[in-house]
Give the backbone structure.
Amino acid sequence: MTPDNHPVAADRLTLADPDTPFAVVDVRRTRRNIGRLAARADRLGVALRPHVKTAKSLDVAALLHEGAKPCPVTVSTLAEAEAFAEGGYNDITYAVGIDPHKLPRVLALSRRGVTLRVLLDSTEQAEFVADASRRAAIPVPAQIEIDCDGHRGGLRPDAPELPGIGRVLHEAGCLDGVLTHAGESYFAPTAEDQRLAALNERDSAVAAAGRLRSAGLPVATVSVGSTPTAHAAEDLTGVTELRAGNYVFFDLVMAGLGVCDLDDLALSVVVTVIGHRPEYGWIVTDGGWMAMSRDRGTAAQAQDQGYGLVADLSGALLPGLVMTAASQEHGTLTAREGVPLPDLPIGTRLRILPNHACATAAQHRGYHVVDGSRPTGEAPAVAGFWNRVSGW
C-alpha cells in the first residue's frame, strides 16, 4: 500500500514526491543485515529470535523468513504481540517485565494458540503469574530475567531468591527458562570490549540456568542477546537462542561501535531545506526532533554525529555535513570545522541517517521503501509503503 499524502500514482512515486519529513527503508540493506546475523547464528549453533521492536513492522519481519513459516520473535509491547499474532506469528517472547494488569491480554493470546512468554524478576511477579495461570487453567510460560551488566532489571545469577522464584513458576507449569540482555554493550567501544560483553552475557545466563537445574528445576530456554554481542559472540555453548533487533536497520551508534559500516544503515529520514542562516553557518530543514527523536546516542562516542549525518536524496553522504541541532519541527545542519557549507537551495531534499534507529522509527507511522540495488539517480523510486505498529 501507499500513504495518502503523495501527489502521484504509486507506480510513479519517488522520494521527491511525498510531503517531508518521512522515513525511508532501503530493502536491499535490510536484507543484507538480516542475512548477516542469520548466518552467524547458524555458525554459533543457536536459534535466532529477532526482536521486532526496532522496525515494528510485519513487512520488515517478513524479510526474516522470506515466505517460509513465520519465525519466533521477541516483542517489547503487547500491541506488537497482538499485531504479530494477527500476522501469523505464534511463538513470541514479551521481553519486558510483566505486571498484573497485562495478564488478561497475555491470556487472550494464549487462548488463540499463541505461545507468549512473559518476563519477570521477583517472587511477587512469579506468584501472580502462577495464580493467574491456575485460575485460567492455561500455564503462562515465564522466563526469569538475569542481570548480566546494566542493572535495568533482573536478578544477578547468584541471587539467593532465584531458585525460589523458579519453583513458584515450575509448580504452576510456567517455568520456561532464563533471559538476559547485555545493555552495557552499547557502550563497549572496541571489538574486544564487545567480545567480553558477549562472554559475560553468555556466562551469566548459563550460570543462572545451572543453579535452577541444580535445584531440580527444568530450564528449556537460555536466551541472550543484543545487537553488539550478537555480532561479537564467539562461543554460545549452553545458550539456546540469540536475540537482537537493531541489526535489521543498524544506526550511527552501531556504526560508531564498529558493529556495522555506514553503508549498512538501512533507515533514513527525508527532509527538505526550508531556510538558511549564513551568519551562523546554518542550513535549516523541516525535520526536527519530531522526525529524528531527541536521541543523542553518539555524543558519548569518539565521533559525535549530532542528530544524524546528512546524505543526498540518492543516499550518498555529504562530507562533513551534520544535523547538529533540533527543535520540534526544525533541524539545523552545520559543517564540521574546515569543511565548507554546501550550497543547498530551499526545496533541496536530503536524507538524514539516525543515531538510534529504534527511536527514529518510532516517530513515524510507516516506511517508504526503496531498493538500493536499483539505479536511483536523484529521486529513487518508492517500491511501497510498510505500516508500523504503534502504542502499547
The domain at 10-23+259-387 is CATH 2.40.37.20 (Lyase, Ornithine Decarboxylase; Chain A, domain 1).
